[in-house]
Amino acid sequence: MKTELRPGRKKPPQSSSTAKRGPRRKIFKQPVDPERVRTIPVQFGAVDRQLVYSKHIQHMSTDEIALYVFLQCVSDAEGLSFYSDERICEYLHFSLNGLWKAREGMVHGGFLLYSQPIYQLLNLPEPPRWE
């Protein structure tokens, strides 16, 4: 069956990729379980993906990463939080020594400022020049 064109209309050009594969079909996504669709809460903390893409995460200890993610979750819009050392240790299963070491590493790395009891998350530092 041949497609006839109306006068004044041109047939759209086909790119070589479209000609080989045929027209693109739109994919409709549906949840696997519509009863369990996730909703984003108003108080939602997100980790800056530059932590990974700028390779900061490769040079952080596991405890530093855990502390960073925890502080991202509990801090306000300005990056401030005031959890006690004991409470953070309880949540993250750290010893006090482990917390102090992780905090020191994050301060030294430029991720965090600390003045008891205030933690202040900073913008991520410039990508490291380790390579």
Description:
- Helix content is 34%, strand content 8%.
- A hairpin with a 2-residue loop joins strand 2 and strand 3 (118-121).
- It has five helices and three strands, in the order H-H-H-E-H-H-E-E.
- The chain has helices at 16-21, 50-53, 62-74, 85-92, 96-109, and strands spanning 80-81, 112-115, 118-121.
- By secondary structure, it is mainly alpha-helical.
- Helix 3 (62-74) crosses helix 5 (96-109).
- It has a domain at 50-120: Arc Repressor Mutant, subunit A (Orthogonal Bundle), CATH 1.10.10.10.
- It has a three-stranded antiparallel beta sheet.
How do the helices and strands line up, and which of them pair or pack?
Blueprint: H1 16-21, H2 50-53, H3 62-74, E1 80-81, H4 85-92, H5 96-109, E2 112-115, E3 118-121
Antiparallel strand pairs: 1-3, 2-3
Short structural description:
This protein has 131 residues and is mainly α.
Cα-to-Cα separation, first versus last residue: 61 Å
Strand content: 5-15%
**Anisotropy-based shape:** elongated
Roughly what is the average pLDDT, rounded to an integer?
Answer: 81
Q: Order of strands in the sheet with the most strands?
A: 1-3-2
User: What helical percentage do the residues reach?
Assistant: 25-40%
Structural class: mainly alpha
Q: How many individual β-strands? A: 3
In the CATH hierarchy, the architecture of the domain at 50-120 is: Orthogonal Bundle
pLDDT under 50 segments (min length 5)?
none
Radius of gyration: 25 Å
Oligomeric form:
single chain
Order of H and E elements: HHHEHHEE
CATH class of the domain at 50-120: Mainly Alpha
The tally of helices reads 5
